[in-house]
Design goal:
The chain is about 35% helix and about 25% strand. By secondary structure, the chain is an alpha/beta fold. Strands 14-13-12-11-7-10-9-8-15 form a 9-stranded mixed beta sheet. The chain has a 6-stranded parallel beta sheet with strand order 3-2-1-4-5-6, sandwiched between helices. The longest helix has 20 residues, at about 300-320.
Length: about 325
């Protein structure tokens, strides 16, 4: 049985506590938060103890791993503290604000011989997993164009930390990191990024970004990220020489595949039923539990998380300068 301490009592802390309750091989034993009453409420929901100081939690609680659900600018600090205490680290995306912080987290976990697992939950969403399988199987032929969209209202957080890019990374690093990670997982490495971004004025928070990413495969990906809408929605379109795959979360059958069977109109192709009782957080945390208990390799490596962050940071730089930003090849960075 994996014993887990959840750090953070905001939206993601609540989501993770609820998800952990469905993981058979894990149990939340401690919840840590600055707001003691919120920590106590979350702890009561899962039969855990509540704390407002990490030191006190280490002294009196029994746990094997910490689940960091804190604002992004605190990830490095608490990952280092947890690693030094000999605890495995589970951390929400993005791994950190920049590559320096991310690599410091990797180094701290290596030094103390604990594992670092990053929560890119889109890899566990049924529609996105099925889409990747269809791409990798060759059903779409050679994919040339990729369009992905992720839109929501401006997120709320204690102290309005999402509105401070020095704490959240902004809409690109915080929201579009989902699609960036899935894009790289499915299609391989990116070559260069061009981005545009709109930011709101004080008192009227909104942020919107468009990214054009040239993949090394030759495909062009267009990513839309928005904190300027009134409700959440996501969608994607993948077009290849063999057909087109379309997903929209609002549809009753969200994943649709049309095959190009010759010069005529594309023909619909049946897609397996994607209904699944467990949500992506439950699947993700169950997988991480298996990795920690059984020593297996994670679907998302810490290096994957760093590479997704590097693409996001390149997009932020492109939006700032108005110029395309090239991604360094691994052989060039040695």
């Amino acid at each position: 049985m994996l014993k887990v301490a959840v750090i953070g009592t905001g939206t993601m802390g609540g989501e993770h506590v609820a998800a952990w309750r469905s993981v058979e091989r894990a149990r939340v034993t401690a919840v840590l938060g600055r707001n003691k009453s919120k920590a106590e409420a979350l702890a009561a929901a899962c039969g855990a103890a509540a704390y407002d100081a990490f030191e006190a939690m280490v002294e009196s609680a029994e746990f094997d791993a910490v689940d960091i659900c804190l604002p992004t600018h605190l990830h490095r600090e608490y990952a280092a503290i947890a690693a030094a205490a000999g605890k495995h680290v589970i951390c929400e995306k993005p791994i950190a604000l920049d590559a320096e912080d991310a690599n410091a987290m990797l180094a701290a976990c290596r030094e103390h011989r604990v594992r670092l697992l990053i929560g890119h939950d889109l890899r566990f969403c049924p529609e996105y997993r099925q889409a990747r399988e269809l791409v990798r199987s060759g059903k779409l032929g050679r994919v040339g164009t990729i369009r992905m969209s992720r839109r929501s209202r401006f997120p709320e957080g204690a102290g309005a930390w999402y509105a401070d890019a020095s704490k959240s990374g902004g809409v690109i690093a915080d929201l579009l990191i989902h699609d960036i990670d899935w894009l790289r997982w499915t299609f391989g490495e990116a070559e260069r990024v061009t981005a545009l971004r709109v930011e709101g004025s004080e008192g009227a928070p909104l942020e919107y970004a468009l990214l054009a990413i040239r993949m090394r495969s030759g495909a062009i990906a267009q990513l839309e990220g928005s904190w300027a809408h009134t409700e959440f929605s996501s969608s994607f379109e993948l077009s290849g020489t063999g057909g087109m795959l379309v997903e929209h979360m609002a549809d009753s059958a969200p994943l649709r595949l049309s095959a190009r069977s010759g010069p005529g109109e594309p023909q619909p192709v049946a897609v397996p039923d994607m209904s699944l009782a467990r949500n992506s957080y439950e699947l993700e945390l169950a997988h991480m539990t298996d990795c920690l208990l059984d020593g297996t390799e994670p679907i998302v490596s810490a290096t994957d998380a760093v590479k997704a962050l590097e693409i996001a940071r390149a997009a932020v730089e492109s939006a700032r300068t108005g110029r395309p930003v090239a991604l360094a090849r691994e052989e060039e960075s040695r």
